[in-house]
């Protein structure tokens, strides 16, 4: 997939990556030197408990470049619960995909 989403949760201290195939998950695991805490192949979502910069640097080595980033805050209706995340969208051109 040419687009990948990285989410950093302020409350949970995890980094979620969505959009990688199985081989890319193995590659990013090697780059961050950590196995994912959570892996859902159907949703193409993995979660790591490593610093976000490690994940972003690993994705950059894999050919992904950040195209957007921003903070997101949300809360459930009628509750005081809120969550805060920082989200990056990364893209890799099709000619960069051949090296994996």
Task: Describe the 3D structure.
The chain has 2 helices and 6 strands; from the N terminus they run ββαββαββ. The two termini are 12 Å apart. It has a 6-stranded antiparallel sheet, covered by helices on one side. It is α+β, with helices and mostly antiparallel strands and 100 residues long. The model has no long low-confidence stretch (mean pLDDT 86).
Q: Helix segment count?
A: 2
Give the overall average pLDDT: 86
**Helix and strand succession?**
EEHEEHEE
Question: How many DSSP-defined strands?
Answer: 6
What is the radius of gyration computed over CA atoms, rounded to a whole number of angstroms?
14 Å
Instruction: Specify the helix fraction band.
Output: 10-25%
Brief summary:
The protein is an alpha+beta fold and 100 residues long. The protein has helices spanning 22-32, 52-61, and strands at 3-9, 15-18, 38-40, 45-48, 65-75, 82-91.
List the helices and strands and how they pair.
Layout (H helix, E strand, L loop, with lengths): L2 E7 L5 E4 L3 H11 L5 E3 L4 E4 L3 H10 L3 E11 L6 E10 L9
Helix pairs in contact: 1-2
Task: Supply database-style keywords.
100 residues; alpha+beta; six-stranded antiparallel beta sheet; globular
